[in-house]
Amino acid sequence: MDTRGSNAATKQRGFPEKFVYAAGRQVISVIRNVGKKKVFNLGGSLILLLLPSIVLSQVTAHHTVTVVVQTITLLQINVGTVALNITGAGLIAGQNQMTATDQSTTISWGTNSSLKKITVNTNLAAPIFAMKVLALNPTVGTAATEVTLSTVASDLIINIGRSSGTSSLQYTGVALASQGVGKDTHLITYTIQSQ
Amino acid sequence: MNKITLAFALAAFAVFSTHTSLAQTTATQTVTLAVSSVQKLSVSGNPAPLTIGSGVAGTEGLTSVTDATTTYSETHNNAVPMKITAGIDVALAAGYTLQITLASTKGTSSGVVDISNATTAVSVVTAIAKGSDNAKAITYTFSATATAGVLVSGTKTVTLTITT
């Protein structure tokens, strides 16, 4: 039987022949769509893919990445306890006011939101003697005038923008001879807040 | 890649954020102020020489001289009132008298006090309350009798002390 003409006739009919090459060991099978009947052959460990005429593999993939920076505000004091003593050293006879100072404290802060200020207050409602505090040299912001401590928060450093900074603090204890002897213990609170 | 592995990969890259804000907005510090017992006393300088150079015929006492050019200042913070005493290093010979008067607003002046023989200090101001007195007048009075004779120029040291 001469099948050449039949084969030729089959080709002429345009039946698609598609060839799949699998990496490695493979069996090459020809998928023929003969119209009513489809035949494919899967062999071994190979995966046969029916490739369309356009690119078939997924070469890109996408993630939705969310980044967030929240408000960060930090405040720190380097010294836990400060002690001032008025002993009369340097006092001139005839003067009623006596003072003692300390500059061992440094305050540090960091903020990524603007505009901030640092306030200060004491827990001591009725001290015997006056206690004052002054920011000496803030690296960022503006030092307010020297504060006489009270239970009401007072501005210490103002106009702090997004930044990190430090400042030395000067405490000054003031006592009058007419007030006598005694001791005050303050718990001083520094607060960084919106201006 | 199976689904579980893919899920972990996504989680690792998904979010660069903290779950809570970093907000240490306050800092506290303990500060103590202690005031000890304090006493201070000073004088402005030395009085001018006290020179007796005249008298009245028939009167034993020569004309005394005074000096009120010096002052003293004091400060103390003690609850118990204090006093100022005055003493002389070497007593004057008989017939010569040195007197001192200290003014005061914080205490009670003892008025004119004879310190001619006060090698042991005597009170000149008492009951001085805590506080300060600044630049209060000191008055020295020197007198002599004709009988005492001539006194060659010499110096005396008068010591003022604030004490309890």
Give a quick rundown of the structure.
The complex is a heterodimer of chains A (195) and B (164). Chain A contains 1 helix and 14 strands. Chain A has 195 residues and is mainly β.
Describe the structure using short key phrases.
heterodimer; A: 195 residues; mainly beta; Immunoglobulin-like; 2 domains; four-stranded antiparallel β-sheet; 1 helix; B: 164 residues; elongated
Structure, explained:
The complex is a heterodimer of chains A (195) and B (164). With 195 residues, chain A is mainly beta. Chain A has one helix spanning 4-12, and strands spanning 17-19, 30-33, 38-39, 66-67, 73-77, 81-86, 97-111, 116-122, 130-135, 142-143, 147-148, 154-160, 163-176, 182-194. Chain A has two domains: 16-53, no CATH class; 73-194, Immunoglobulin-like (Sandwich), CATH 2.60.40. Chain A has one helix and 14 strands, in the order H-E-E-E-E-E-E-E-E-E-E-E-E-E-E. In chain A, the strands form three sheets. A five-stranded antiparallel beta sheet of chain A has the order 5-7-13-9-11, with no helix packed on it. Chain A has a four-stranded antiparallel beta sheet with strand order 10-12-8-14, with no helix packed on it. The model of chain A is unreliable at 1-24 and 26-53 (pLDDT under 50). Chain B has one domain (39-163). In chain B, the strands form two sheets. Chain B has a five-stranded antiparallel beta sheet with strand order 4-5-11-7-9, with no helix packed on it. Chain B has a four-stranded antiparallel beta sheet with strand order 8-10-6-12, with no helix packed on it. Chain B is elongated, with a radius of gyration of 36 Å. Chains A and B meet through strand 4, strand 5, strand 6, strand 7 and strand 13 of A and helix 1, strand 1, strand 2, strand 3 and strand 4 of B. Strand 6 of chain A pairs parallel with strand 3 (26-35) of chain B.
